[in-house]
Design brief:
Length: 259
Amino acid sequence: YATTAPDALVLWEAQYGDFANGAQVMVDQFITSGLSKWGVTSRLTMLLPHGYEGSGPEHSSARLERYLQACAEGNIRVANPTTAAQYFHLLRRQALAPEIRPLVVMTPKSLLRAQSAGSSLGDLSGGGFQPVFGDAPSGDAKRLLLCSGKVYYDLLKEAGDGNPRPPIGRVEQLYPFADEELKALLAQYPALTEVTWVQEEPQNMGAWSFIAPRLTAILPAGVALRYVGRPARASTAEGYDSQHRVEQKRIVSTALATG
């Protein structure tokens, strides 16, 4: 890592959490703290498959919370893109950004061939990476769902086509925290009384503990913040596909329910 040319874009893919766990010493020692300790940085990009798809604990979680816990002083970038164009523009930005930093990317395998996550040639050839996405503005919406990554498509599938549902915002860049973009998104829903953070991970994992205080700091007066996801657990995910489906169904149904 220290001898890699700082302007070279090197991509390293771990096989879910089990491989990332074995690399944790190197991540902590060189990648997340190298700039602060030695002034050493790079464009190293870590692709970590992360998505709750019923494959068991180590094949669900890339330990997103560990990387977010290590974020400070602009040391790394952490993203969870949800479309092919977002992924393409993210890598392109990583290769060309004048400020050289490592990048951690959550890459759910179920989205590799999902038509819903596809992009047009126009999306790929134009535009750029967007830290935050949101539904169309609404002056009547009382609730806004915020999420990051694959669970967005689970929410859409559960809601169904044409059925009423709360607007959904996607946080594609988790660090550096996109506070200005999120403020702009919140402003599009002036009647909000509640923002619900939806995640697949247990409450003591995933992005919740990182994002909750940052969201609280920018929420408009009178808007409450709510959590929907798995309860705090010792394991990252269920070990049985049947139990996984029950829990996943509960999460998206609870998030979409009114009241």
